[in-house]
Amino acid sequence: MRSQVQDGRSVRAAAKRRKRREQILVVAEHVFAAKGYYATSIADVIGAAEISRGTFYLYFESKAELFHKLVDRFVEKLLSCVEGVKVLPDRPEPTQQMYDNIQRVIDLLVENHDLSTVLLREAVGVDDEVDRKLEEFYRFLQGMLITALQRGAQMGLIRPVNAHIVATAMLGSIKEVLYHYLVVQRVDIPDKQAMATALYDFFLRGLLPENEG
Amino acid sequence: MRSQVQDGRSVRAAAKRRKRREQILVVAEHVFAAKGYYATSIADVIGAAEISRGTFYLYFESKAELFHKLVDRFVEKLLSCVEGVKVLPDRPEPTQQMYDNIQRVIDLLVENHDLSTVLLREAVGVDDEVDRKLEEFYRFLQGMLITALQRGAQMGLIRPVNAHIVATAMLGSIKEVLYHYLVVQRVDIPDKQAMATALYDFFLRGLLPENEG
Amino acid sequence: MRSQVQDGRSVRAAAKRRKRREQILVVAEHVFAAKGYYATSIADVIGAAEISRGTFYLYFESKAELFHKLVDRFVEKLLSCVEGVKVLPDRPEPTQQMYDNIQRVIDLLVENHDLSTVLLREAVGVDDEVDRKLEEFYRFLQGMLITALQRGAQMGLIRPVNAHIVATAMLGSIKEVLYHYLVVQRVDIPDKQAMATALYDFFLRGLLPENEG
Amino acid sequence: MRSQVQDGRSVRAAAKRRKRREQILVVAEHVFAAKGYYATSIADVIGAAEISRGTFYLYFESKAELFHKLVDRFVEKLLSCVEGVKVLPDRPEPTQQMYDNIQRVIDLLVENHDLSTVLLREAVGVDDEVDRKLEEFYRFLQGMLITALQRGAQMGLIRPVNAHIVATAMLGSIKEVLYHYLVVQRVDIPDKQAMATALYDFFLRGLLPENEG
DNA sequence: TATGAATGAGCGTTCATTCAT
DNA sequence: CATGAATGAACGCTCATTCAT
After folding, report:
1. Mind listing the pLDDT tens digit for each residue in D116-134?
2. How far is CA A74 from the centre of its chain?
């Protein structure tokens, strides 16, 4: 059994270690966001993090692993902020749930500007592991949306549509809008609520005038 | 002044040169589509094209230039197939024009499966030149859509919407749906017309049931 | 079918390539002999060979492969110079055959001073591939000697001995003597015939005086 | 002058220190024997010894020094077990002394399987210091054997032979036989006495049948 | 004394590009 | 015009060693 002193030490050491990893991850977000995965060398990362090569490899076993962790964090954060639309007494209207999801995704990506930039920009194609993770994630979201669309249609809340295509289109819409503001224009989105509202409105009512509220 | 013989020669030579370039570009589409930009080496391209290293550099000044040309072709082809929505006596209904545009884009990308794969997958982030070209192109499309949305609203054909966001969302929808089918599922799209219809329908009428035809 | 010109070219190119490889191998023999496998870096080899890094990797796929080729050459040369002792009308006395083998091995190693140095010195332990090759080779020689000892005993030409141990001891004798002269003393052996004779004499007659000719 | 208490402390501390060093050396034998010098990292050693990096460098100034100590121990042990053949009234027959030496060397190496593996396998070539030590040691043995052979010949106990070469051959015989059994076949030698006898018999009587007892 | 996080020189390897033939 | 051998800068990674705690 470890003494209390040892436990205290190891606990503090583990905390320090986590902090260091975190620091590297945060710095790497910036660097990858600025230069892209391939153009970023280990030298760039350790230069920005002000650590030595050896230290980097103490915390990550490769450049790939570093990127995978960033992808994992992105995916985890997003997964924890989207919720399947459910019809329950204690939950808001289904359409409100959809709106809330959009809002939360926007908030999250805006808060994690660099990470979002990296992932929206060029994560696909980096390596098979990353491709698999992202595809799995998008497929999960797509599945969620498809289910929501199908249930919503059964319940008469929405029109029956080609759920597969519409779900994919909705995903693409959100990605593109966020990509456009975060990466292309490199601005913090002025009015996150307006953005969510505009997307939500477009999704629900489309373009035709007879759909006017 | 060149003699006629020399002109004849140089004309033939220029034609031959163009043909060679074309051959390399076509082969490169396949290779880039299969392996991605970074994982594709010059060795892969010249191996597939059955030419020597030296010959490659006779026709392209770098790997980057080769890729730029592919991007240029993609952009040109797409530009030549989309048309701004205009209200003129000799043209179809504006909504029909939108539908036609969607349909043509889908057709083009399906016809150019490899090129589309490359560009939808990971073109962004390859280098600043490519980023600029693609951004310019997407901005052009976006501008076109924004204009159409604004004019449509003025004319009462569509609801007034946040044109910027909706235009971006429409672009993202189309990209994502095509990406999903062309790259992720790697299938030829079974029913291109149905896909266009589904997107068109979603764009116009959204999800709410009161929008039912 | 290739034209004669192309054949001529490719034949010449292949010859040039072989020559280059050979040149690198020869230089590498020197370098490995002087510094040992591990202390020798690719930089040392290409420096001594006066080629660039890239060129080295054009001819060898790794430092390991370079060393493997050297081992292969060593083993091949030795295999081609030792012959199993056979009793046939047109061949010399079995003991003379043994003497000849010893003489040929000594000659070969003296002629290939550097290569022998590398292999006698520290080839074992470099990697599993090398270990396997050398062990296989020594086992082959050992097997040959064991057979010769057993047959010789059956024919009454030699005493019955513990063939396994004696064969191994004979191998060790030859290795150590050559190692001593080639590597430790770093001299060309003054009298190769005397060396062969001394070993041969020791093998046949041992130390006891009653064995005096 | 140190107080008795301090002396007691420092004596105990020194003993502890020696014990620690010893423990590391013993563990390192195993590790080096299993993986070889170059493939063994400090991480392997401290992992097996269950000490920290810092502690290792408290006891050894480098990986090289650790190995040097192992070589020293090997050489010391061997030196303490071989004795020069001397003709004295209170000592056995010279040939018996030779047999005893062989037997003791075999016993020692079998008892120190790991250490022997390391040293027989790949010690040569590790660094100049090790090379020097081993060469000095082998030269010492060789000198001893040469003297014995020359004296033996003078006394008429053995034939006059090329003492240099025969001494080297005898060393090589013993090394190779032990190497073969300890390292290649990785077995404990079944009958150490038979091995000594076979070598002794071969050394004294050679292969020719007229030498039959 | 004991620790283990931090270091950085040095390694083997890749690959886009050049140029003599 | 065509070739492919040659180049070398740049990369990701390792590991013996140090030193603040």
Report:
1. 998 888 778 888 899 899 9
2. 4
Choose from B32, B207, B208, B210 for mutation: most chain A CBs within 10 A: B207
The pairs formed by D71-79 with CB atoms below 8 angstroms and a separation of 24 or more are D71/D119, D71/D123, D71/D130, D71/D133, D71/D134, D72/D133, D73/D25, D73/D115, D74/D112, D74/D115, D74/D116, D74/D118, D74/D119, D75/D133, D75/D134, D75/D137, D77/D108, D77/D112, D78/D105, D78/D108, D78/D137, D79/D137, D79/D140
> Do C and A make contact, counting contact as 3+ CB pairs within 8 angstroms?
no
Q: What is the pLDDT of residue B3?
A: 56
Which chain F positions come under 7 Å from a protein C-beta? 1-20
Q: What's the pTM?
A: 0.90
Is residue A66 less than 8 Å (CB to CB) from chain B?
A: no
DSSP string, D107-134: HHHHHTHHHHHHHHHH-TTS-HHHHHHH
Question: Is some CB atom of chain B closer than 8 A to the CB atom of A135?
Answer: yes
One-letter amino acid of B30: H
| Residue C94 pLDDT exceeds 90 | no
Question: Tens digits of per-residue pLDDT, B48-75?
Answer: 999 999 999 999 999 999 999 999 999 9
B124 touches chain A (CB under 8 A): yes
Kindly give, in sequence order, each residue whose CB lies less than 8 Å from that of residue B87, ignoring residues fewer than 6 positions away. Answer: B94, B151, B155
User: Cα(A202)–Cα(D145) distance, rounded to whole angstroms?
Assistant: 99
Digit-coded pLDDT (tens) for B1-39: 455 566 677 788 888 889 999 999 999 999 999 999 999
**D 164-193 residues inside an 8 A Cβ radius of C:** 165-166, 168-177, 179-180, 184
Is C124 close to D122, i.e. CB distance below 8 A? Answer: yes
**Which subunits have 3 or more CB–CB pairs within 8 Å of chain A?**
B
Kindly state whether B152 is in contact with chain A, defined as any CB-CB distance less than 8 angstroms. yes
Q: Is residue C201 less than 8 Å (CB to CB) from chain D?
A: yes
Task: Report the largest interatomic distance among the alpha carbons of chain A, rounded to a whole angstrom.
Answer: 74
D202 vs D189: CA distance, rounded Å:
18
Question: Which DSSP helix (H) or strand (E) runs through B45?
Answer: helix B42-49
The pLDDT tens digits of the residues spanning D16-35 come to 889 999 999 999 999 999 99
CB contact under 8 A, B209 and A122: no
Q: Which nucleotide is nearest to B61 (CA to C1')?
A: E17
State the angle between helix axes of A94-111 and A128-154 in degrees (0 to 180), rounded to the nearest 10.
160
Mean pLDDT of B112-125: 86
From D51's Cα to the closest Cα of chain C, the distance in A is: 27
- Count Cβ neighbours within 10 Å for each residue of B175-191 and write b for 16 or more, e otherwise: bbbbbbbbbbeeeebee
Mean pLDDT score, B100-119: 92
* Three-class DSSP category at C61: coil
| Predicted pLDDT at C1 | 46
Token pair for residue B61?
């000044």
Q: Best of C99, C157, C173 to disrupt the D interface by mutation (most D CBs within 10 Å)?
A: C173
Interface of B with A in 41-60 (CB under 8 A): none
Taking residues D160-173, report their average pLDDT: 96
Q: Distance in angstroms, CA of D67 to C1' of F20?
A: 28
**Averaged pLDDT, B117-138:** 87
Identify all chain C residues contacting D135, using CB atoms and an 8 Å cutoff: 184
Q: Which tokens in the block code for residue C77?
A: 């040369």
Per-residue model confidence as pLDDT tens digits over D147-163: 999 999 999 999 999 99
Residues of chain A with pLDDT under 70: 1-9, 211-213
- Give chain C positions within 8 Å (CB) of D36: 125
Task: Give pLDDT, residue A177.
Answer: 96
